[in-house]
Records
---
Amino acid sequence: MAVINKGLDNIYVKESKICFIDGENSKLYYRGYSIEELAENSNFEEVAYLLIHGQLPTKDQLDTFNSFLAKNRGIDEIMSLMRLIPKTSHPMDMIRTTISALGMHDPDASDNSRDASVRKALRMLAKAPTIVATFARLRKGQDAVKPDQDLGHAANFLYMLSGKKPTEREAKIMDIMLILHAEHEMNASSFACSVTVSTLSDMYSAITSGIGTLKGPLHGGANEAALKMFMRVGGPNKAEEFVTETMKKKEKIMGFGHRIYKSLDPRYKVTKPIAEELAKQRGKTALYETAVRVEDAAIKALAAAKLFPNVDYYSGIVFSNLGIDTDIFTNLFAMSRISGWAAHTLEYLDDNRLIRPKAYYTGTLDLKYVPIERRG
C-alpha cells in the first residue's frame, strides 16, 4: 500500500537557503536574518534584494536596485487593459490577469536566462503596486495617480492609492507589512511557482501561478476574513459570546492556527502593536479592542488544540487603518510576495527537476466499452 501524504505534509521537495521557519519556537528567518530584526532595521527594497540575490546589498548595489524599481513602475503598456477590466472584478483576478499580460510586453520576454529572469521579477515587483493602486482608483471612477520615482516602494504605493503623500510613519508601517509578507518558505503558492518553472516555463508564468494559488481563502485571504469577522462580533463586550457560539457551530476563528507554527506566529508579534498604534491614532479603537477580546477568549477555548493567532489576525486592522479597501488586502500580499516567489523560482531552476508526483489509483480496471445507444 502506498503511503499518501495528503497536503504533502512534511514532504521536502528541495534544499533551500531562502527561508527557515522554526514553528516550535516561533521563529522566522529570511536568508538567516530574523524577521524581527529585518522589520526593525531594514526596508522592503533591501529585503527583496536579500531574498532574490542571497545577501544584503552594499549601498551602491541597493541604489542601483532602487533605481531599477523606480524607473520600472509605470504600466502604460497595459493601461488600455486596466480600463477594460470590469469594476466588479475580484482584485486577485485583476492582478493575476494584468501580471500575466505584462509578460507579453517585457523586453526580455524571449530570454529565460537567469539574468533576464531576475529583471523580469524586478519589473513585476516594481509594477505590481501601480497595478493595485490603479485598479483601486479606476473602479471608483477616480483618475490613476502616476508613480513618484522620488518615493520609496511603500510610500509610493500609498501615494498612488490616495493621491496624497503619506506621513513618514505611515510609509514605515506599510514598509514593515511588506517585509512581513515577502516570504514564507515552501507554502502553497511558492510550491505552485516551483511546479510551473520546473517545466522550464518562464518567470511570468511562475509568478502568475503563485498569484492564482494565493487567491484561495485557505492561503491569502485570511486577513480579509479576520477583519470581517471582527465587524460581525458586535463590539468588545460580545467577544466571548461570539467565540462560544463559533466553537459550538464548529466554525473557524479566522486568523487563528497555522500549519507550521505550533506557538505564536512571529509576524503576529510585530503586527499587533502596530494595529494598536494605528487604532489609537485614528480614533478607531473599537475594532481593535474587539479583536483583543476575541483573541483572549479564543486562546482559552483553543488551548487544548494549541492554536494561536497568526499574521493575518491583526494585519487587516493595520491595512484598514491605512485607508486600504478590504478586498485588496490579498493584493498587498501578492505584490510583496513576488520577491519570495522569484527567489524560490530562481533557486529551483539552479537545480531543476521536473516535478511529477504520482496519484495512487483506486478505481476499477478493464471495463468493457458500451456503445452510447445501449447505456442506461
---
Amino acid sequence: MHTVIVTAAGLVLLGMFLLLARFWASDRGILAVGAKAFIPVWLALTLVNLWIGVRYAGYTLLQELPILVITFGIPAAAALLVIKRTGGRRRP
C-alpha cells in the first residue's frame, strides 16, 4: 500500500510542477520545463524513500530496489510523456 501512496504522491507532485509552470507562462512549451524540473526532484525524493526503507523499516537494498523502480518510474514516465508531447511545440 505504501508503494501505491508514494507513486500517487509522485503523480500529484508532477501535477503541481506542471500547474506551477503553467502559471509561470502561458506558453504550452513551458510544461516541458516543469516536467524536466520534476524528474531530478522526484529522483531525490524516491532515493530518500529507499534510504528510509533500508535504514528504519528493516528492508534490504535488494528488496527496496524494485520498489524504487516502480515509485520513480511511473511518475517519471508520465513526466517524459509530457515532455514528448509539449517540449517541441510552441503556440503561435
---
Amino acid sequence: MADHYQTLGVTKGASSDEIKKAYRKLARELHPDVNPDPHTQEKFKEVTEAYDVLSDPQKRQSYDMGGSNQFGGANFGGGFSDIMDAFFGGGGSRGPRPRTRAGQDSLIRIQVDLNEACFGTEREITVESAVVCPKCTGTGCLDGQHPEACMTCKGRGETQQVVRSVIGQVMTSRPCNACQGYGSVIKSPCRECAGEGRVRSRQTIDIKIPAGVETGNRIQMSGRGEVGAGGGPSGDLYVEIVEERHEYLVREGDTLHMALEVTMIAAALGTTVTVDSLDGPVEVNVKPGTQSGTPIVIKGKGMTRLRRGDRGDLVVHVEVITPTKLSKDEEKILRSFADARGEKANEAHVKGQDGSIFSKLKGVFHK
C-alpha cells in the first residue's frame, strides 16, 4: 500500500492547505485530459485517493492510526474506516456530495477614534477573500463546459464492496475515488481556479459604523464573506471595532472622564474655564472652595448610547495644583493668610473613617 503522504509529496505534519496545494499541482500534471498515458492515469488515481483520505480529518486520523493493518495484519479487505463501517452500519447509502458549498464567515478589525465611535461614521475598507471565479462563473470547468457523470460510480458518488470482518462478510459503501464522492468529474478544470469555482481577490466595501460603538462590538455584513466552493453562497463579514486611545478623554461605558488642573487660588476663589469636548468648547464652572478630586458633571456631553441615540455625561475631575516652590514674598503672604484665618502653617489633622477618602476606598474594595 502506497504512502499517501509520499504520493502527494508532503510531510506527515502537513496542513490541510499544503495538502490541497500539492494535490492541485499534481492533478494539473496528471489529469487524463492532459496526459492520457495509462501509467499516468494510474498515478492520477493514486494521487486522488491520497487526497481523498488526507483531506478528510476523520479519514486522515484513521489512516494515521494504522490504516488497513490496524488489527495486526489481518486482511479485512478495506481500511480501518471500512472495519468501523462494518461494526456501526456504515454500509448505508450516502449519495453524492454537492460541489457547491456555503462559504465561511470572515472577520476583520478596524480602528476608530473616540469622535467616530461617539457620532458614527462611514468607511471604505479593502478586504481579501474568495470570490466567484470570473472565468468559469463558479462551475470549475474550462470554456463553458460542465461536470459530467462519473463513469466509475455512475453518478452515485460512492462505490460498494464486500469486506470480511469478524462478523462475516459485510457490504460497505465508501466515497468514489474517481470523483471524490461528487458523483461527477470535471474533465477540463478551469485554469484560473483549478476547478474550485472561486479565486482570491481584493475588494472594496462601504461600511456604516453606527454611533455609540466601542471596542469589541461587531458589525455583521450578510453575504460579504467568503464565497463557497463551486460558487456556493457567501458567508458573512464581521467587522470588529477597536477604539483608539484619546489624548485626554477616558471612556467608561457611556460616560466620558476628563482631568482638569486648576491653581490653588482658582479653586479657592472659583472660576469658569473652557475645555474642549467632543462637541467643541464647553464651559466648566469651578465653584469657590472646590477641593481636589471634586467631580463636575456636564450633562449630555458623553458618549452616544448605542441603538438609543441619547448621550451620557462628561465628568470633569478637578485637580488642585499646590505650589512646590515659593519665593520669600509668596511664603510671607501665605503665612499672613494663615494668620488671618487663625490657622497654623504646620497644622494637620487625622481624619476618621467616615471621611471622604475612606468612603471612597470602601466603595472600591467592597464592590
